[in-house]
Design brief:
Layout (H helix, E strand, L loop, with lengths): L6 E2 L12 E4 L2 E5 L11 E5 L2 E4 L5 H11 L16 H4 L10 E5 L15 E5 L26 H11 L6 H9 L62 E7 L4 H4 L21 E4 L18 E4 L8 E2 L3 E2 L4
Parallel strand pairs: 8-11
Antiparallel strand pairs: 1-3, 2-5, 3-4, 5-12, 6-7, 8-9, 9-10
Length: 319
């Protein structure tokens, strides 16, 4: 294997930090892991410097965007039959074409972990304003990460904010915080000195969360320590959209310098083009996905909106 040493560039911030963002110096590092087949092979990658949101985009930040633009998210729009693949349209009852989003639903008893549909349901009325169903609310939760947003929703926010989504390589370089091939943003020990460092699932999944880390579901941003670059919650809390199309072969075929997977691919378990999400969420644990490791990655359909997926933005330095 190539040298496991991360080499940060000497790029210095060209200007004061934009509000809520931190400087990521860029450099070369070993991306990926050998823990899961879809996370390898470990390969050397170089990324340029950029600014990155210190936290996941919050409800308050997203509300400001909506107030400014009048934007209506995917989960708030009535689904159209023509938006579904032609082969399944005949099986969709028209009375089910109602706005909503995917919500986690605990199971009453232990179940095999090979079918996520057992603990997910499409909730009518769920949206970023009502992330856990129509009876839920974000009132008093300005500092919680926004969820139930699709890929198109987050692109619209990025455009409004003058930012963009990170690539997978940029996201992983930043999440590692300069550490070389560590499992987590803070090192290799999951609970240093017995301290919880991330919001994940404890207890028997998907039956009951024991809340040992302080939260049964999402947590306010900055509830856990930042990594060396000043990034919060790059492990757990909510998954984060990236700009890349997901591919299980791109790590072998992509470029080593600023890799960006811009081509839709069916090279994933779903068999249809998906985007990459990173960081894991409050639903991840060691018996299921363990994707709160810095190399963890997953594929998600761009039109999907769930109550465990949000995002953070990056911004290129001015020339």
């Amino acid at each position: 294997m190539e040298s496991a040493t991360t080499v940060e560039s000497r790029a210095t911030p060209p200007s004061p930090a934009p509000a809520g963002m931190v400087w990521i110096p860029g450099g070369s590092f070993l991306m990926g892991s050998e823990d899961k087949p879809h996370e390898g092979p470990v390969h050397k990658v170089t990324v340029e410097a950029f600014w990155m949101d210190a936290t996941e985009v919050t409800n308050a930040q997203f509300a400001a965007f909506v107030a400014s633009t009048g934007f209506v998210t995917s989960a708030e729009r009535v689904p159209r039959l023509e938006d579904f693949p032609e082969e399944v349209r005949k099986d969709i009852p028209t009375d089910k074409l109602r706005p909503g989003a995917n919500n986690f639903r605990p199971c009453d008893a232990p179940v095999p972990l090979n079918n996520p549909l057992q603990w997910w349901e499409y909730r009518f009325g769920a949206s970023w304003r009502h992330p856990d169903g129509p009876e839920s609310s974000i009132e008093g939760k300005d500092n919680w990460p926004v969820v139930c947003v699709s890929f198109d929703d987050v692109l619209a926010y990025c455009q409004w904010a003058g930012k963009r989504l990170p690539t997978e390589a940029e996201w992983e370089f930043a999440a590692r915080g300069g550490l070389s091939q560590a499992r987590y943003p803070w090192g290799n020990e999951f609970k240093p000195d017995g301290r919880w460092m991330a919001n994940i699932w404890q207890g028997e999944f998907p039956v009951k969360a024991t809340e040992e880390d302080g939260f049964a579901g999402r947590a306010p941003v900055k509830s856990y320590p930042a990594n060396r670059y000043g990034l919060y919650d790059v492990s757990g809390n909510v998954w984060e959209w990236t700009a890349d199309w997901y591919s299980e072969s791109f790590y072998r075929t992509g470029p080593a310098y600023n890799p960006r997977n811009t081509e839709p691919s069916s090279d994933n378990p779903q068999g249809t083009p998906c985007r990459s999400i990173r960081g894991g969420s409050w639903l991840c644990n060691d018996c299921y996905c363990e994707a709160y490791r810095v190399a963890g990655r997953q594929e998600t359909s761009p039109d999907t909106a769930t109550n465990h997926t949000g995002f953070r933005c990056v911004k290129d330095p001015a020339p």
